[in-house]
Task: structure prediction
Amino acid sequence: MFGVWLSPVEHLVRDEGVGGSNPLTPTDCKGDARTSPFFYLLEIMEALLDIIIISFNTRDLTLRCIASVMETCTLPHTITVVDNNSSDGTVKAIKARYTDVNIIERTTNGGYAAAVNTGMAATSSEICLITNADTRYFPKAIDELYNFMSVVPNAGTAGLQQVYPDGSWQRSHGYYPGIKFGIYDILGINKFINYRNAKAFNANKNQFVPKETEYIDGAILMTRRTAFDEVGGFDEAFFFYAEETDYCFRLRKKGWKNMLCPWIRSEHIRGASSNAFPHKESVQLLVDGKIIFLKKHYGKFVLTFFTIMEFIHFFSTEAIAKTARLFMPDTQFWNRKQELYAKFLTAWKKNLYL
Result:
């Protein structure tokens, strides 16, 4: 029960500080008394970890996600499924198989952010795990993420390293949309960063070093209720995509940290609710989410700049894909790339005139 106090995570935080800088001091702590590590020593025997699963027409994946949580999480916890008015029998299947899972049935699909707020309002734990239904947890992954947050009281969110079903690296955190991101896209720096991170993952480099980042991917996001309440939860103006980016942005403005724990890993299919190969509607939702974020936090100049940068980026990448499919042997791969880039190009082009 007390193993967390002797874990490598605690020693790393105590001796090196978050991200390998300076040791934590009392002034690093934020929030009320519940954010103190000593409080968790008293709490850990109680069922105070809430796991909130957001589902929408992902019946089989939701059942698999619930099963993986029950099989791998050894901490006392409760599971709450917030269903966004699924039409595939998700709720009925959960009730038939898992009588101890709490289910909240929304009568409309108000989006991911609204579902998260609903789930948080119906639970009470100081630390909560918000998760997509298309995730599968590896043994002790949730425990380790909880343990990390327990000893890093200024972490508003924490995420783990997500992997695809074949075990390959998946982007699990990122940078905010803005001028720097737009320039990085055009210069190919973002692709290089992803390539470098994937190579480091394959080589197991720096896997035990927690990393402070701008935002944690919302598919697997552990958060502290004190932080959640301080910023007013998720902004329901975001329907699907960029809601976690906005949430993490507001947390950082209040002094909270968003932390990635790359040594903890679990599976994320990615895109199960919106199709693994995005339809134009899904692409438009992704673009719209970034536009809402930019309007809210940066204003018209940055929005215009970023829109132009993204239009140029996808115009260029579509042209490259078109050319590559003429000369490369794997034409199916490049056909799919060209189709995807064309969808993004159309979505950003639409916003050039707004």
